[in-house]
Protein backbone atom coordinates (compact mmCIF):
# COMPACT_ATOMS: atom_id res chain seq x y z
CA UNK A 1 0.00 0.00 0.00
CA UNK A 2 2.85 2.37 0.86
CA UNK A 3 4.62 1.60 -2.41
CA UNK A 4 1.49 2.36 -4.38
CA UNK A 5 0.91 5.71 -2.66
CA UNK A 6 4.60 6.61 -2.93
CA UNK A 7 4.60 5.73 -6.62
CA UNK A 8 1.47 7.81 -7.12
CA UNK A 9 3.03 10.82 -5.38
CA UNK A 10 6.21 10.56 -7.42
CA UNK A 11 4.22 10.27 -10.63
CA UNK A 12 2.10 13.30 -9.85
CA UNK A 13 5.04 15.47 -8.81
CA UNK A 14 7.06 14.53 -11.86
CA UNK A 15 4.27 15.44 -14.27
CA UNK A 16 3.96 18.91 -12.81
CA UNK A 17 0.58 18.52 -11.17
CA UNK A 18 1.82 19.91 -7.85
CA UNK A 19 4.36 22.43 -9.16
CA UNK A 20 3.34 26.06 -8.89
CA UNK A 21 2.96 27.78 -12.21
CA UNK A 22 5.35 30.65 -12.70
CA UNK A 23 3.85 33.78 -14.10
CA UNK A 24 6.33 35.94 -16.00
CA UNK A 25 6.66 39.51 -14.71
CA UNK A 26 4.96 42.19 -16.78
CA UNK A 27 7.21 43.84 -19.35
CA UNK A 28 8.94 47.01 -18.25
CA UNK A 29 7.75 50.25 -19.84
CA UNK A 30 9.76 51.36 -22.85
CA UNK A 31 11.48 54.73 -22.27
CA UNK A 32 10.54 57.48 -24.69
CA UNK A 33 13.29 58.46 -27.10
CA UNK A 34 13.97 62.12 -27.45
CA UNK A 35 15.63 63.18 -30.70
CA UNK A 36 19.17 64.32 -30.26
CA UNK A 37 19.02 67.45 -32.42
CA UNK A 38 17.50 70.90 -31.97
CA UNK A 39 13.76 71.09 -31.67
CA UNK A 40 11.74 72.37 -34.62
CA UNK A 41 10.42 75.90 -34.15
CA UNK A 42 6.77 76.22 -33.34
CA UNK A 43 4.90 77.94 -36.19
CA UNK A 44 3.45 81.38 -35.34
CA UNK A 45 -0.29 81.58 -34.83
CA UNK A 46 -2.24 82.24 -38.00
CA UNK A 47 -4.17 85.46 -38.55
CA UNK A 48 -7.80 85.33 -37.50
CA UNK A 49 -10.32 84.97 -40.29
CA UNK A 50 -12.29 88.05 -41.28
CA UNK A 51 -15.88 88.26 -40.06
CA UNK A 52 -18.52 87.21 -42.58
CA UNK A 53 -20.70 89.99 -44.03
CA UNK A 54 -24.11 90.42 -42.39
CA UNK A 55 -27.01 88.61 -43.98
CA UNK A 56 -29.36 90.66 -46.04
CA UNK A 57 -32.98 90.37 -45.09
CA UNK A 58 -35.53 90.09 -47.85
CA UNK A 59 -38.48 92.51 -47.79
CA UNK A 60 -41.00 89.61 -47.54
CA UNK A 61 -39.34 88.28 -44.38
CA UNK A 62 -39.42 91.70 -42.71
CA UNK A 63 -43.12 92.18 -43.44
CA UNK A 64 -44.74 89.92 -40.82
CA UNK A 65 -43.50 87.11 -38.65
CA UNK A 66 -45.52 83.90 -38.84
CA UNK A 67 -47.89 83.34 -35.92
CA UNK A 68 -47.19 80.30 -33.77
CA UNK A 69 -49.25 77.23 -34.66
CA UNK A 70 -52.47 76.91 -32.71
CA UNK A 71 -52.46 73.87 -30.45
CA UNK A 72 -55.59 72.92 -28.59
CA UNK A 73 -55.10 71.12 -25.34
CA UNK A 74 -57.77 68.75 -24.06
CA UNK A 75 -59.75 70.09 -21.14
CA UNK A 76 -58.31 69.30 -17.75
CA UNK A 77 -60.17 66.52 -15.92
CA UNK A 78 -62.33 67.56 -13.02
CA UNK A 79 -60.73 65.87 -10.08
CA UNK A 80 -62.94 67.24 -7.36
CA UNK A 81 -66.13 66.08 -9.03
CA UNK A 82 -64.72 62.61 -9.59
CA UNK A 83 -63.65 62.39 -5.96
CA UNK A 84 -67.10 63.43 -4.77
CA UNK A 85 -68.75 60.85 -6.98
CA UNK A 86 -66.55 58.13 -5.55
CA UNK A 87 -67.40 59.15 -2.02
CA UNK A 88 -71.13 59.19 -2.71
CA UNK A 89 -71.21 55.84 -4.51
CA UNK A 90 -72.78 53.12 -2.34
CA UNK A 91 -70.65 50.12 -1.45
CA UNK A 92 -70.98 47.22 -3.89
CA UNK A 93 -73.48 44.58 -2.91
CA UNK A 94 -72.22 41.02 -2.51
CA UNK A 95 -73.14 38.93 -5.54
CA UNK A 96 -75.99 36.54 -5.10
CA UNK A 97 -74.86 33.02 -5.79
CA UNK A 98 -77.12 31.20 -8.16
CA UNK A 99 -76.67 27.52 -8.73
CA UNK A 100 -75.06 26.79 -12.06
CA UNK A 101 -77.26 24.87 -14.46
CA UNK A 102 -76.28 21.25 -14.76
CA UNK A 103 -74.54 20.50 -18.03
CA UNK A 104 -76.38 18.29 -20.40
CA UNK A 105 -74.86 14.84 -20.75
CA UNK A 106 -72.84 14.40 -23.89
CA UNK A 107 -74.35 12.12 -26.47
CA UNK A 108 -72.96 8.61 -26.36
CA UNK A 109 -72.65 8.41 -30.10
CA UNK A 110 -69.13 7.29 -30.84
CA UNK A 111 -67.62 5.62 -33.79
CA UNK A 112 -66.30 2.27 -32.75
CA UNK A 113 -64.45 -0.54 -34.36
CA UNK A 114 -66.32 -2.71 -36.78
CA UNK A 115 -65.87 -6.25 -35.48
CA UNK A 116 -67.25 -9.49 -36.66
CA UNK A 117 -69.20 -11.51 -34.06
CA UNK A 118 -66.28 -13.98 -33.86
CA UNK A 119 -63.71 -11.22 -33.20
CA UNK A 120 -65.96 -9.63 -30.57
CA UNK A 121 -66.41 -13.00 -28.82
CA UNK A 122 -62.62 -13.59 -28.82
CA UNK A 123 -61.93 -10.16 -27.32
CA UNK A 124 -64.55 -10.67 -24.61
CA UNK A 125 -63.15 -14.12 -23.78
CA UNK A 126 -59.61 -12.70 -23.43
CA UNK A 127 -60.96 -9.86 -21.28
CA UNK A 128 -62.75 -12.26 -18.96
CA UNK A 129 -59.63 -14.44 -18.59
CA UNK A 130 -57.46 -11.43 -17.63
CA UNK A 131 -60.13 -10.18 -15.23
CA UNK A 132 -60.24 -13.59 -13.56
CA UNK A 133 -56.48 -13.36 -12.91
CA UNK A 134 -56.96 -9.91 -11.43
CA UNK A 135 -59.83 -11.06 -9.23
CA UNK A 136 -57.62 -13.79 -7.67
CA UNK A 137 -55.29 -11.08 -6.34
CA UNK A 138 -57.77 -9.24 -4.13
CA UNK A 139 -58.50 -11.99 -1.54
CA UNK A 140 -54.78 -12.86 -1.29
CA UNK A 141 -53.80 -9.20 -0.83
CA UNK A 142 -56.52 -8.63 1.77
CA UNK A 143 -54.97 -11.23 4.11
CA UNK A 144 -51.38 -9.92 3.88
CA UNK A 145 -49.49 -6.94 5.16
CA UNK A 146 -48.34 -5.12 2.05
CA UNK A 147 -45.51 -2.68 1.44
CA UNK A 148 -46.42 0.76 0.11
CA UNK A 149 -45.35 -0.27 -3.42
CA UNK A 150 -47.47 -3.41 -3.25
CA UNK A 151 -50.47 -1.43 -1.96
CA UNK A 152 -50.10 0.99 -4.87
CA UNK A 153 -49.97 -1.94 -7.30
CA UNK A 154 -53.16 -3.45 -5.82
CA UNK A 155 -54.91 -0.09 -6.21
CA UNK A 156 -53.74 0.15 -9.81
CA UNK A 157 -55.06 -3.35 -10.57
CA UNK A 158 -58.38 -2.45 -8.95
CA UNK A 159 -58.70 0.73 -11.05
CA UNK A 160 -57.82 -1.06 -14.29
CA UNK A 161 -60.32 -3.87 -13.67
CA UNK A 162 -63.11 -1.40 -12.89
CA UNK A 163 -62.38 0.56 -16.04
CA UNK A 164 -62.24 -2.65 -18.14
CA UNK A 165 -65.65 -3.71 -16.81
CA UNK A 166 -67.10 -0.26 -17.59
CA UNK A 167 -66.04 -0.29 -21.27
CA UNK A 168 -66.48 -4.03 -21.86
CA UNK A 169 -69.71 -3.75 -23.88
CA UNK A 170 -68.90 -0.49 -25.69
CA UNK A 171 -65.31 -1.21 -26.73
CA UNK A 172 -64.17 -4.82 -26.39
CA UNK A 173 -60.66 -4.02 -27.67
CA UNK A 174 -60.09 -1.29 -25.06
CA UNK A 175 -61.54 -3.54 -22.34
CA UNK A 176 -59.14 -6.33 -23.34
CA UNK A 177 -56.14 -3.97 -23.22
CA UNK A 178 -57.08 -2.68 -19.76
CA UNK A 179 -57.79 -6.18 -18.45
CA UNK A 180 -54.46 -7.49 -19.82
CA UNK A 181 -52.55 -4.75 -18.03
CA UNK A 182 -54.43 -5.48 -14.81
CA UNK A 183 -53.78 -9.20 -15.27
CA UNK A 184 -50.03 -8.67 -15.75
CA UNK A 185 -49.76 -6.51 -12.62
CA UNK A 186 -51.85 -9.00 -10.66
CA UNK A 187 -49.75 -12.00 -11.79
CA UNK A 188 -46.54 -10.21 -10.82
CA UNK A 189 -47.90 -9.32 -7.40
CA UNK A 190 -49.24 -12.84 -6.82
CA UNK A 191 -45.73 -14.19 -7.48
CA UNK A 192 -44.30 -11.79 -4.88
CA UNK A 193 -46.91 -12.75 -2.27
CA UNK A 194 -46.38 -16.54 -2.54
Structural topology:
Elements: H1 2-14, H2 59-63, H3 79-88, H4 117-142, H5 148-167, H6 172-193
Helix pairs in contact: 4-5, 4-6, 5-6
Task: Please give a structural write-up.
Helices cover 49% and strands 0% of the residues. The chain has 194 residues and is mainly alpha-helical. The protein has a domain at 117-193. The radius of gyration is 49 Å and the shape is flat. The model has no long low-confidence stretch (mean pLDDT 75).
Features:
single chain, 194 residues, mainly alpha, 49% helix
Poorly predicted regions: none
SSE topology string = HHHHHH
Report how far apart the termini are: 49 Å
Beta strand %: under 5%
Average pLDDT, to the nearest integer?
75
Considering DSSP H and I runs of 4 or more, what fraction of the residues is helical? Answer: 40-55%
Q: What would you call the shape?
A: flat
The main β sheet shows up as:
none
Structural class: mainly alpha
Number of strands: 0
| Rg measurement, Å | 49 Å
- Total of helices: 6
What's a concise summary of this model?
The chain is mostly helical. The protein has helices at 2-14, 59-63, 79-88, 117-142, 148-167, 172-193.
Amino acid sequence: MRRTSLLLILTLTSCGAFRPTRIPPPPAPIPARIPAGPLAPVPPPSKPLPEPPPLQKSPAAEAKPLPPPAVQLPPAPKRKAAAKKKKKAPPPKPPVETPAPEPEPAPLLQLGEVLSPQQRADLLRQTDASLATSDRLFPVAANRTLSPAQTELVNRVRTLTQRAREVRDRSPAEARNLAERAGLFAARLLEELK
